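Page 47, continued from p. 46.
Same chain as before, 242 aa.
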Amino acid sequence: MPLSTDSIPVGDIRDRLIIGLDVPSVEEARAIVQRIGDAGTFYKIGYQLAYAGGFAFVQELIAQGKKVFLDLKLHDIGNTVEEGVRSIARLGATLLTVHAYPQTMRAAVAGKAGSDLKILAVTVLTSYDDQDLIEAGYAPVPAADLVAKRAAQARDIGIDGIVCAAPEAARVRAIVGPDRLIVTPGIRPAGSEAGDQKRIVTPGEALRLGSSHLVVARPIVKAADPRAAAQAIVAEMAAALA
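Result:
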């Protein structure tokens, strides 16, 4: 299936690499962005940085011409999600995550109305495997099947894209069609440690499986040379697409 081209311009391969700023302070994040320079165009801000001054940093990055993915995984009663998304939309971020529960997704779609914000539904966290789902109280069901069910619900509700592990990307692409985003975390370049991720692949493999955008954090931000690490991943992505 073709990669998404409608929701976010992806003519520049760098726009398909989302660099996770999983660091404890804006100062450290700012230093990483400076070191990466024009090798990175798209950055993810999650819990750790968001609650340490990261919301103001969103606007700083946008002023530099960068795109921002706010990975907040919202999930609450419908009104709270809707109003929260409405506030977030005013920040100017490109992407925002919510958990893929139908009520939450419908509220997020309502909250972002009239803005350019794109909503991504998180299906099953990449740190979960089948046993983790059983432990959490789900009936015995493969993680991939739960991902597929939630992807279909997200499609029908009008969500802009899906967050899923790369091993599920091909199946999700068949469900959501060619134009929605598929954003894949848990990416590890060949030779990297898995860390706390359980369903991981390399950048090239993820693109070949149908992902449109890849999230890479530790292999870049913890590298001795973050710029070189980002450039190497972009090169691998370009080779896979070629």
